Amino acid sequence: MSDTLLSVKNLVVEFPTRRGILTAVDNVSFDLERGEVLGLVGESGAGKSITGSAVIGLIEPPGRIAAGTVHLAGQRIDNLPSEKMRRIRGDKIGMVFQDPLSSLNPLYSVAEQLVETILTHKGISKKQARDRAIELLDEVGIPAADLRIDDYPHQFSGGMRQRVVIALALCADPELIIADEPTTALDVSVQSQIVSVLKKMCSEHGASVILITHDIGVIAEVADRVAVLYSGRMAEIGPVRDVIKHPQHPYTKGLMGSIPTITQEGDRLTQIPGSMPRLTDRPPGCAFAPRCEMAMSACHHSHPSEENVGTARVACHLITKMGAVA
Amino acid sequence: MLAFIIKRFVQSLVVMLVVGLIAFVMFRFVGDPVDQMVGLETSIEDRERLREALGLNAPLPMQYWNFISSAAQGDFGTSYQFKRPVAVMLGDRLSATLELALVSAIFALCAGIPMGVFTALYKDSVLTKLFQAVSLVGISLPTFLIGILLIYVFSVQLQWLPSFGRGEVVDIAGWSTGLLTSSGLKALILPAITLGLFQMTLIMRLVRSEMMEILRSDFIKFARARGLTPRAVHFGHALKNTMIPVITITGLQLGSIIAFAIITETVFQWPGIGLMFLQAVQDVDVPIMAAYLLMIAFLFVFINLIVDILYVVVDPRIHIEKA
What we know:
- The structure holds two protein chains of two kinds.
- By secondary structure, chain A is α/β, with parallel strands linked by helices.
- Helix content of chain A is 35%, strand content 24%.
- Chain A has helices spanning 48-56, 82-88, 100-103, 110-121, 126-139, 145-148, 158-170, 188-204, 216-222, 240-245, 250-257, 297-301, 317-325, and strands at 4-17, 20-33, 37-41, 64-72, 75-76, 93-96, 176-180, 208-212, 225-230, 233-239, 306-309, 312-315.
- In chain A, α4 (110-121) crosses α5 (126-139), α5 (126-139) crosses α7 and α7 (158-170) packs parallel to α8 (188-204).
- Chain A is globular.
- Chain B is mostly helical.
- Chain B has two domains: 2-72, no CATH class; 87-142 and 197-322, MetI-like (MetI-like fold, Orthogonal Bundle).
- Chain B has helices at residues 2-29, 33-37, 44-53, 60-72, 86-121, 126-140, 143-157, 182-215, 218-225, 230-259, 261-267, 273-283, 286-314, 316-322, and strands at 170-172, 175-177.
- Chain B has a two-stranded antiparallel ribbon.
- Chain B is globular.
């Protein structure tokens, strides 16, 4: 094991509502090494984005981190005062959001937004910051960056704007980038470009990545490891190849079976019956049990603990049982 | 930018010509102007001579042209009641109204915007609840009642500020101003607050709701995620985005402040054009009414032109669309 950049332990994020407390993220743990790309997949509402927001300390009140810890490079960051946390954002952790059209302030030019961000974190002159900004735009593949830097966001296309967003997230050389569905809002034709720009930029700048997406294809392409979330809980986490080729958790199996492949022509795609339970009425046992074909009585009563299976870590009673038998 | 301004200018001109037509129709057809100007004992010949001198026998389009061209040169005819040129009478009083309107607009902006920002940022603060209570008063109490209440508290009970008039004024190049004397400034406070309170409330509520909306937007979240200071996020990124509606409303309201200063001017016996207009209505002094109409229309058109130009300055997207 090389050195660990980010360590999330037993993270619980709660949202108090009128109908009671909703646990959006329930006891999620994972580590991220330097230079590693971790994919975070799951359905809408599985807690992917909330996990990302929790790491960067941007959970919208009244939501809060109710338990667990987040360590970045050995420093605990989940309980920092807001001013200290602000200094970490952008400087140590960058974030890329889903919709590049609305991520940029329409009233400021790209140069103003980049220079402002660089100056917030680096003690350099305005001129140097501007040069650095042009350099970054060039790196993310914006043609004639020195001419286009003074343009406003609306003068760029969606794909170009997402490149600008990536440049903004990376402009203070953070060690960790959280990319929250960076391609979802883009045309299919530019999605893979953006993914490769993101991958290239992060590896060149030595940043680790948490890539939040529901596109397994993207994960397969760029991630080193993948974590599958279901209803706020970790279902399975492991190296991408293993998880995709040999999924252990029935939910991951269903998820992989629902991806069309060219060779499987004519076959119907498998689909998982039912839908993810709402956070208000999560079953008492394993959250996936009501939809699971292989559910046993234990699945309906108690939540499975996470067990190591080969290179992966899986939370499923079947695994626990097999482990006991073996 | 220049093409845009020229285009808006031509549009403004058309609006002014139409308003001029309305003013002209009123001037020409609300009673016979000659009857209004002469006494009962004037002979028919004298009346006819006056009619000819006033150009009332010319064809109607010609009369309209005469009316417009003289109005454009600042000649609005002679007041029936005071037998003085309307332009001079307006000039005497316009400064009073414009000063009052301007100061109350500045008050409304300088108090309304920070209050709006504060109430949007600190939703649960005690001060927010206080501001909202004040805004409720400002939006629901009629102007004259606010004026009377202010007079009661600050003039009658505390005796800090005068209850009527404009105080001492200083003449600078034909513009009489009360802004340079202490009694003039003191006299301005109560009417300006009275006139501006509603606008302040409006701006505060507008800024608050716009601000709360924008603080939820993606680019604010992204600005926070980049670690920008709260100050840069709130005032640089969020507040600037609330400015378009604020400019619109302020522009529209500035026109209304001037046009509807009448009530405040009446309560405080402020020697402005509103008070003069009110008297003109009572006396059926049509030239003053027509001139007032034209002038208010001009102010509205002028302010709207400024507002349109400000849009372009604040929001780069508008510039591109028009160009």
